[in-house]
Amino acid sequence: MTNVFGSCPIPGSQHDRVLLGHGSGGRLTAELIQNLFVPGFGNDVLARLEDQAIVGLALPAASGGMRNESTNVAAHGPRIAFTTDSYVIRPLFFPGGDIGSLAVNGTVNDLAVGGAIPLFLSAAFILEEGLPLEDLQRIVASMRAACDAAGVALVTGDTKVVDRGKGDNLFITTSGIGIVPDHQPVMSIGFARPGDAVLVSGTVGDHGVAIMSAREGIEFETVLKSDMAPLTELVQAMLGACPEIRCMRDPTRGGLASTLNELAAASQVGVTVDETAIPIRREVHAACELLGLDPLYVANEGKLVAVVPAADADRVLDVMREQPLGRNAAQIGRVVDEHQGIVVLRSLIGGERVVMMRSGEQLPRIC
Amino acid sequence: MTNVFGSCPIPGSQHDRVLLGHGSGGRLTAELIQNLFVPGFGNDVLARLEDQAIVGLALPAASGGMRNESTNVAAHGPRIAFTTDSYVIRPLFFPGGDIGSLAVNGTVNDLAVGGAIPLFLSAAFILEEGLPLEDLQRIVASMRAACDAAGVALVTGDTKVVDRGKGDNLFITTSGIGIVPDHQPVMSIGFARPGDAVLVSGTVGDHGVAIMSAREGIEFETVLKSDMAPLTELVQAMLGACPEIRCMRDPTRGGLASTLNELAAASQVGVTVDETAIPIRREVHAACELLGLDPLYVANEGKLVAVVPAADADRVLDVMREQPLGRNAAQIGRVVDEHQGIVVLRSLIGGERVVMMRSGEQLPRIC
Questions:
Q1: I need a surface site. Which of A72, A351, B87, B317 has the fewest CB within 10 A?
Q2: Which of B137, B169, B365 to mutate: most A Cβ within 10 Å?
Q3: pLDDT (tens digit, 0 to 9) for every residue of chain B, 367 residues total?
Q4: Which among B52, B65, B73 has CB closest to A153?
């Protein structure tokens, strides 16, 4: 037995039990990952903290075909991307999709933003006793449609049932495999350099606000829909125009603010953002004011953030805007040498404020 | 939108809501898979109903690198095995392991029995608010130890938190990728032929009985332990001795009885089993009598069933018995031309009875 942990509490943690905030995508989530999962599993692929693992596929040379050097995953053979996400969203159905289409698109996008072509998905269902089978049918049909739209095949799955009161209707965990084209340089959230441009592919906050509206039963003049969509074509078009893109991320849980904070921390750079440049739909702005949300922290499911060399920014933006999912693409900021690890927002009225990683949950169970 | 379903109820189902039995690994689970998931996702890899999908890894030739022919997964490039399972076992800790080591071994074994060398795992955690972080630490440490023992690396993961009362401490979903050696012929649960021998690698029922003992607080003279263990070396040794093995399965949920029924149905053959030949530990027998369980339906987590040509049976058994996990290997029956789709047990006293696929749950949440 390898036990790399001391006794509880977790080093660096002030808590001894799981809080809702540990699932927020914010500071508590980061703490759990950095202090518990990464040292616990201890291998350098996991420690990179990308949205997907990119690993070389080859049989180990060790005895009997078995491999004990768990960190020895250098790129021999084709490179694949591998990712997993559990979806615990509430409610199951919402404007623009449901838990099933979300599970497919979310996993496809985690592969796509790594530069991979998504190929195969798995789906594991945890059903609560009493779930109407008709709901499950609708969700499976919507997963199938999402797979077809994203060009992936769902090839393996599992079903478990838990007693009433021990689940919440339905949780879905999707995992995905994609292939990384040979010529594709590795991107990493650790590769941003001062001077780089920070781009976003479209309006932010649409998914989270759609879910909150559905959950709270709030009606607006126009129906707010989740923006969920598969990003593979957009990513491939961008990489075709500029193979030097430093990294891409889909700003889901924790929103744009958390993604930019992760970037600043991983690359040891500062990030400045211009509030007026961030595309936000008028209705999303209005809903956020009503619900007391900050749109920078609200989840997106069909958007990406990209860091590109400054000289390539305009060319990449042109290519993005030619794509249906990049029509509203914009440069929202840049990477700077100052205030390492910190994201600074220049506000509408010209003031500056630090955009922190939030500790807990603004929106629990948004994905 | 492709909706291949009519309106509810599901064709062939008598139920309109999820029952605990839908997670049993028995008849209701099979019904859900055959009537809802397979037609819903509609591709031939999933429809094979193996414990793992074996797919060729190659970039599609279609436009823009995207692929819409979801069934076109023929074996170009290296073949990989891909599998997923959610673990909802109760209690989290039990003699011989915990939910974490179970999740690792279960996924490793689903790859191994397909003839693959397991390489990479993912893990997605659904935590219930209030779970002690110390428990999570212990479980992560035990997953790490299980990964090391099985020669796999856990390279990507996810964490979600659900509110108190909407989960049950911890659910883990692991997915795995293995590589199938080029020379390895495909095995399939549909390949059994009359005359073949049916082998089991060791004593049956150990895992399920250990869980039930822990759950019910029953103490026996000796501690009953789960048999969980990674089967890769055993499988590879068997395939080295006999590449013509028709299929292998690990008889987990639903036990030996369900695996044999699946085999009889998929291969359209009969199976006869000799009760006296089935290795069962004395303590497991005693515990089953006390708990009112039939050991043939009790889950195993470190055993496999293999169907081999009769002429190779003794040679394969010899190889199995040289392996630590195959010491108690035995031939328990054979494949016959009669009673297609039906498993017949010749009992201790010489009588014969049909071993059915059970409808519902003998042991809920055993894995």
A1: A351
A2: B137
A3: 323 333 334 555 678 999 999 988 888 998 999 999 999 998 888 888 888 999 988 776 543 434 433 333 334 468 999 999 999 999 999 999 999 999 999 999 999 999 999 999 999 999 999 999 999 999 999 999 999 999 999 999 999 999 999 999 999 999 999 999 988 899 999 999 999 999 999 999 999 999 988 888 877 777 789 999 999 999 999 999 999 999 999 999 999 999 999 999 999 999 999 999 999 999 999 999 988 899 999 999 999 999 999 999 999 999 999 999 999 999 999 999 999 999 999 998 889 999 998 877 677 888 9
A4: B73
Q: Which of residues 255-284 of B touch A (CB under 8 A)?
A: none
* Topology (CATH) of B17-180: 60s Ribosomal Protein L30; Chain: A; (3.30.1330)
> What residue spans define the domains of chain A?
17-180, 197-355
Residues 6+ apart with CB under 8 A from B148: A2, A68, A70
Contact list in A for residue B23 (CB cut-off 8 A) is 127, 159-162
- Cα B28 to Cα B30: distance, rounded to the nearest angstrom: 5
Residues of chain A with C-beta less than 8 angstroms from the C-beta of B124: 84-86, 173, 175
Q: Residue B352 is inside which H or E element, if any?
A: strand B352-355
Is B91 touching A (CB cutoff 8 A)?
A: no
3-state helix, strand, coil in chain B (%, to 5): 35, 25, 45
Q: Is B71 near chain A, with CB under 8 Å?
A: yes
DSSP states of A88-103? --SSSEETTEEHHHHH
User: What are B159's strand-pairing partners?
Assistant: B125
B40 touches chain A (CB under 8 A): yes
Quote helix, strand, coil % in chain A, to nearest 5: 35, 25, 45
Domain A197-355 fold? Phosphoribosyl-aminoimidazole Synthetase; Chain A, domain 2 (3.90.650)
Q: What residues of A are in contact with residue B107 (Cβ under 8 Å)? A: none
Among B10, B122, B232, the residue to mutate for chain A (most A Cβ within 10 A): B122
Minimal CA separation from B113 to chain A, in Å: 15
Interchain CB contact of A20 with B (< 8 Å): yes
A297 reaches B (C-beta below 8 A) = no
* Partner B contacted by A124 (CB < 8 A): yes
Would you give the end-to-end CA distance of chain B in angstroms?
35
Q: Give dist(CA A276, CA A308) in Å, integer.
A: 20
Q: What pTM was estimated for this model as a whole?
A: 0.92
CA A167 to each of CA A143, B37, B77, B92, B106: distance values in angstroms, whole numbers, following the listed order: 21, 21, 41, 16, 22
B55: chain A residues, CB-CB within 8 Å = 119-120, 155
For residues A107 and A279, give the distance between their C-alpha atoms in angstroms, rounded to a whole number. 24
Which one-letter amino acid corresponds to residue B77?
G
CB burial of residue B6 (10 Å; 0-12, 13-18, 19+): exposed
Cα B347 to chain centroid, rounded? 25
Q: How far is CA A10 from CA A13, A17, B92, B291, in A?
A: 5, 10, 20, 40
**What phi, psi does B97 have (nearest 5°)?**
165, -160
A141 touches chain B (CB under 8 A): yes
